[in-house]
Amino acid sequence: MRRRQFFELLTFGSAAVLTASEGKKLRKESPEALDKTRGMDPWVEVDLKAIVANYRRIKKMVGVKVMAVVKANAYGHGLVEVSRVLEKAGVDWLMVGKLEEAVKLREAGVKCPVLNFGPLSAGDAAEIVDQGISQSVFTDEVFRLDEVAAKKGRQALVHVDIDTGMGRTGIPDDRALGLMEKIASRKHLRLEGISTTLTEDVEFDREQLRRLNHVYSEAKKRGIDCGLRHAASSAGLLVSADFYLDMVRPGITIYGYYPNAKTQKEDPLALQPALCLKARVVFIKDLRPGDTLSYHRAFNA
Questions:
Q1: Most buried residue among 107, 158, 202, 285 by CB atoms closer than 10 A?
Q2: 94 close to 65: Cβ distance less than 8 angstroms
Q3: Which of the residues are catalytic?
Q4: For residue 62, what are the contacts with CB-CB under 8 A and spacing of at least 6?
Q5: Model-level pTM?
Q6: Residues ≥6 apart with Cβ < 8 Å to 291
């Protein structure tokens, strides 16, 4: 099972999600209250203090702006709860994977910059502008944002997503300057940043970095203010400071986990895992040698 599927099952299936303090309070209640509250369902406890501690370790290490990734319900840890504590801790930006998540944060009172790294459709433009959400763009659909912002007398906030070799979304790096020039010429669009996604092949990542920086340098020559350059996710920020640029985008490290076995073993950030999956013991059975358990006699004592 993939990590995302696991967290989705925990969060949207039968498991309840509690903060660590709520879990502690629950355990102090009587067995009868626990039965009434939880039944046989498992529950997830999230230590928000651990999330803040992880963020602060990352911030101290990189020394640049941090855009914490809170997509997919903050990796199953609770979108609004995690975002609120990170904003209170001083996080520079938050990143979501779809517009609904960004809107939910605004409705919950989160005011720090939020980038929707997910797709843009023309019908979303008004809400993006109204909510002051920054939008990742890489096609001419960005000009629908310009039209809507002009009608409202506002500016739409955008980051140009540049494909430097990942091969997914993003405008190819050799065509990015043209789009950036058009954006810079529109008074109702504000270019806040340019970004790329690294492949996590370290040698090729360096080539991706070179391509992104080439676009940045050429844009500067043409008088375009690119805003913030950002490329490094959790894996990139653990490889080299070369990838930090103006901002990093940690995801899994915010929640206390490393992106691969090598960094997990090295533990350079002394991360604190924030999530615990818990369940009640409902029955204990004594077995004798030779007793078997379950379908197809899966276990033999």
A1: 158
A2: no
A3: 71, 295
A4: 237, 241, 244, 248
A5: 0.85
A6: 300, 301
